[in-house]
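Annotated sample (chain length 500).
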Amino acid sequence: MPTPHRSPRPPHPRTAPPQRRPARQPGSDGPRRNRAGGRKPPPRWGMRIVTGLSVLVLGAGGIGHAVVSGLETGIDRVDPFKDMKNRPQGGHGMNFLLVGTDGRDRISPAERKKYRLGGAPCHCTDTLMLVHLSADKQRASVISLPRDSYAELPAHTDGTTGKEHAPHPVKLNAAYAEGGPQLTVRTVEQMTGVKIDHYLEVDFTSFMKTVDTLGGVEICTAKPLKDSYTGLDMPAGTHRLDGGQALQYVRSRHLDGAADLGRMQRQQRFMAALIKQTTSSGVLMNPMKFQQVAASMLESVRADKGFGTEQMLVLGKAMRGFTPASSEFASVPLEEKGYPVKGIGSTVKWDAAKSKKMFQALREDKPLAPHRPKQPRATLVDVAPEQIRVQVYNGTPRDGLGQDVDSALRGTGFNTTRAPLNGGPHDLRRTLVTYDPRWDRSAKSLATALPGCELRAVKGQGATMKVTAGSDFTKVRRVKAEDPQRGEFGTVTGDQVTCP
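Output written by the structure step:
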């Protein structure tokens, strides 16, 4: 492969930073619980851009024109569509490009230390999301565009130096560094074939304040989450995160081998929880509360000139009845996660056929997630029941107990043998689960479905779990995987990833 042209990273931002105005209504700084850290990689913010859409757009439906108009006058404006030609044809519905930058000009040295925000900003996009609102205003589709995606920048003029650049390959987040919002929009439209109707850009400061103003956001995890880079330390269970904790949650990427893919899935889970909190907390119908939340968010928002009062009111009115189930989340299908490019480094390459099909569905205003009937509430577990093989035994004199347990486990998704056996003691009082220590995560997930059971490790047993039903058995608790089964485009709906 010939060496591609790569513009050097500028020492200063290519686009002039927006002039900040004093906050009309201060928001809560929120508790700060991070420990001091050394020099760390630049933070990777995912969900700060979501706050703008969820709060501003959803909130407008319950608030009067005067309040929204007053807020709209304070938004910093950009013109990402200026002189753009040969744009994709518009489809049905409305498309937003949500961009999160790593700007940190209003973060104090003390806050940087507490939140582990060391390092200089790269003046590039840390997160990009394409959000489609359906024409009937009943569905929002959110597609994460990986920041390290392999991209071909179109020919452009450097906005700062005036230098002409020929088309050349980069990582997608570099488009902002070379040409600001306009080049970012051009590049995304070229890659997706989707016409962008509105552009929203947010830095991370408002994220913390908005979460705190909402009273925190509830997040569930079936396994402990710990990241030494961000300071995240969450035991398994349900947690209400304040602004600082939420910040750690959405930017952590050193939890496991999933790296950025896992981070994007956690961002989607947080986005669904944020929508749930916003629509259920009463903030949308409380002008004072809404103004507090919106003012916190608008301190750092930049938007295109066409996104104003009328657009906010129309969208807000349509989305007043929005729920997590109304939203669907996906990431661009990838062909290669470590695609090397000389002079650029390791990139991720989109799957051409699958991504084309996904964006075509978006243009045609079709849902990305398959329709699923509403499921009963279930407890989150680390391993999906469908992946756990179970052999059931009856450890009591009660006829048919083994069959009852087998059927109940199969009903919540476990891969049972469908052939329960009689074995072991015939007067077992407490239900027993034996398992090979190598499959301890599966065993814990199975034990969650059998409240009060005894877990016993048996070396060399193999992958099949053994359940011996005791006289204490009453029922099987419904469980579901923390990371649910995803459809054709790796899509989940919000109700699948919020707390049960």
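Annotation: Residues 313 and 366 are 24 Å apart (CA to CA).
Annotation: The chain has 13 helices and 26 strands.
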